[in-house]
Amino acid sequence: MRLVALIALFWLGVLACVPLMALVKPNLVQLPQGVEGYAFAVPALLLAGAVFVYTPIATYFAARKRWETAEELREPRTYTFTDDGIEVVGKSFSGFMTWPIIIRAERAGGLVMLATRQQQFYLLPVKAFEQPETWARFTQLIEANVRDCRL
Fold first, then answer.
1. Residue 151 near residue 139 (C-beta atoms within 8 A)
2. 45 and 10, same structural domain?
3. Using CA of residue 22, residue 28, residue 32, residue 34, what is the dihedral sign?
4. In this structure, what DSSP letter does residue 28 have?
5. What does the pLDDT average to over 64-91?
6. pLDDT at 1 > cutoff 60
7. Which of 14, 48, 69 marks a domain boundary?
8. DSSP 67-127
């Protein structure tokens, strides 16, 4: 399937060059006058259609396949926040990051977003902080350790 798509995109690209050749060297390609004169734009429109239709569809199916095959994306995680940093533990992995790794914290609706320099984001539901004391301690840790804090 991917090979067929690549071949189709290649030929659409070749066909899209015809209008460009007509613009660069008008005598190279004879274009009919009238309504039919716009027929040279068809390959360019097909290429644009392939890019703006095929790319989002292919991205959707690739993301869906990754979600279905990668169990580590769906497994529950436990976050532990301490003065030293954040520990994340899942069924198949565990990790620890110190506070300087987190460069931004903000609240968006019912989520808290923690961002790293590598544009990796940790999304935490606010409702996970069931008790007001837990939320207060969390916000204290974030405000003390994250420079750009918008909680």
1. yes
2. yes
3. positive
4. T
5. 89
6. no
7. 69
8. HHH-HHHHS--EEEE-SSEEEEE-SS-EEEEEGGGEEEEEEETTEEEEEETTS-EEEEEGG
Stretch (H or E) spanning 150: strand 148-150
Q: Are residues 91 and 45 in the same domain?
A: no
- Residue ending a domain, among 69, 90, 120, is 69
- pLDDT per residue as tens digits for the range 107-133: 988 899 999 989 889 899 999 888 888
Q: Do residues 87 and 36 share a domain?
A: no
At 65 the pLDDT is 92
> Distance between CA atoms of 58 and 64, rounded to whole angstroms?
10
What pLDDT score was predicted for residue 93?
86
Residue type, 66: R
- Asked if 52 and 88 sit in the same domain, the reply is no
pLDDT > 70? residue 37: no
- Percent of the chain residues topping a pLDDT of 90: 28
Domain of 128, in residue numbers: 73-150
> Structurally, how many domains does the chain consist of?
2
What's the rounded Cα separation, in Å, for the pair 79 and 43?
52
In terms of domains, do 77 and 134 share one?
Answer: yes
